Structures are given as C-alpha cells and as structure tokens.
C-alpha cells in the first residue's frame, strides 16, 4: 500500500511563505522595497488570508517589517543589526564547533566532509548557476556542526537567526576568490574538529564568522545599504 500513498499538497500558506522568501533571497524583492498583501494575493492567484499569514511569519523571521498604517517593507539591514546578529552567531556557532569536536561520531564527521567535497567540486566548476548551490552547501556545513553539537537549546537559538543568516549570505558576493576564501575557512574549522582540538575549532569558527561580518559590511557600505 505504501506506493499508493497520497502525498499532501503544500498549503497556500506554505507556498506563499516560500515564494515571498525566495523572492527576497533571490533579490527580486530588495531591502526597503514595499510590498502589498492584495497585489501578492493577485499574483499568486489565491485569497489574501494565506498571504497575510505568510507575511506575519516572515515578520517573525525578521525578513519583513510592518510599520505605521500596516506598511510592509523588506527588511533593510543596519550596521548595528548585522553586528548584533553576527555576535550571536559567533557565540553560538563557536560553541557548537567546540561541542561537535568533543561529541561527534566518526560517521558524523564523514558527513561534514562529504559536504566540503561537494563545495570544492562546485567551486572548481564555478559559474553563476552554481551560486545558489554553494550558498546552500555552506549553510549545510554550518547546520551539521550545530546538529552534531547535541545541544538542542543551542540549535533552537541558532534556528531563530537562520532566516536572517541566509538573507545575509544571499546578498554576499559569491565570486571564485570569495568562494575559495570561505571554503578555506571551512576546511580549517573541520581540520581542528577532526583532530579533536576543541579550542582551535572554537577559535577557527569565531574568526570565520568575524571575517564574514567584515566582508558583508564592506559590500553593504559600497552598495549604500548601510
């Protein structure tokens, strides 16, 4: 009977949520842009209720801002926002790297290594079509370290930042030199995790996120976003 199982179709809410989110991450909706519930509902050819629900969820994620008179705009980062969020990431993910070094099984380390191999292959054959894949694999690298930390509270706190973290990654500049820089940082982090050197793994992750912060601020200041 298993092969005859009927798959549940995604709800209109899920589709609206994922579509708006993808439009933000892909740069179709840019920081500061205003959006309209009625216009989105018309474009999606659905009622306004699931769009309204999706907008509320995206506001909780930090990707939308609802201001005076229910004006809805795409989140526009400030220098203070970025610094605050990356400070949180440094605290959480550096500790996750340390815990993963101490607790991850060899099989789990193999899983992280497989992600790094995929990233390297994408970088070696890089073109613009691979940008999204590289971002997703970089995200997977960080997520696995959080998963293998075996600290559910640390994972939950990090998940609260996940949408904005991905948003920041999506507006980073992914060119061959930048990709290789990130990859080398990931290799260094993994090297110390695999060696079971928790203090150096902690420091390598901390420095990696600090490097990301500086690079992101440089990009956004050039684009006059912050």
TrEMBL record:
* SMART domains named in the record: FCD (SM00895), HTH_GNTR (SM00345)
Query: Where is the HTH gntR-type domain positioned along the sequence?
Result: 10-77
The alphabetical list of record keywords is: Coiled coil, DNA-binding, Transcription, Transcription regulation
Under the heading Pfam families, the entry gives: FCD, GntR
Molecular function via GO = DNA binding; DNA-binding transcription factor activity
Tell me the domain of life.
Answer: Bacteria
Q: Which residues form a coiled coil?
A: 102-129
Query: Is Transmembrane among this UniProt entry's keywords?
Result: no
| Cross-referenced InterPro entries | GntR_C, TF_FadR/GntR_C, Tscrpt_reg_HTH_GntR, WH-like_DNA-bd_sf, WH_DNA-bd_sf
* Name assigned to this protein: HTH-type transcriptional regulator YdhC
Phylogenetic placement of the source organism? Bacteria, Bacillati, Bacillota, Clostridia, Eubacteriales
């Amino acid at each position: 009977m298993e092969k005859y199982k009927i798959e549940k179709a995604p709800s209109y809410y899920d589709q609206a949520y994922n579509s708006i989110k993808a439009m933000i991450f892909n740069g179709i909706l840019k920081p500061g842009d205003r959006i309209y519930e009625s216009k989105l509902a018309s474009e999606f050819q659905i009622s306004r209720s699931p769009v309204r629900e999706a907008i509320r969820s995206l506001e909780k994620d930090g990707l939308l801002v609802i201001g005076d008179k229910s004006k809805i705009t795409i989140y526009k980062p400030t220098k203070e926002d970025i610094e605050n969020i990356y400070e949180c990431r440094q605290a959480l993910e550096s500790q996750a790297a340390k815990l993963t070094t101490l607790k991850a099984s060899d099989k789990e380390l193999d899983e992280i290594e497989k992600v790094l191999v995929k990233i390297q292959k994408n970088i070696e054959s890089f073109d613009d079509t691979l940008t999204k894949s590289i971002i997703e694999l970089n995200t997977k690298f960080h997520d696995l370290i959080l998963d293998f930390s075996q600290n559910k509270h640390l994972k939950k706190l990090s998940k609260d930042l996940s949408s904005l973290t991905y948003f920041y990654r999506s507006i980073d500049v992914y060119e061959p030199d930048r990709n290789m820089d990130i990859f080398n940082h990931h290799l260094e982090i993994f090297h110390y995790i695999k060696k079971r050197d928790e203090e150096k793994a902690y420091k390598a992750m901390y420095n990696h996120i600090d490097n990301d912060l500086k690079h992101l601020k440089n990009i956004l200041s050039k684009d006059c976003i912050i």
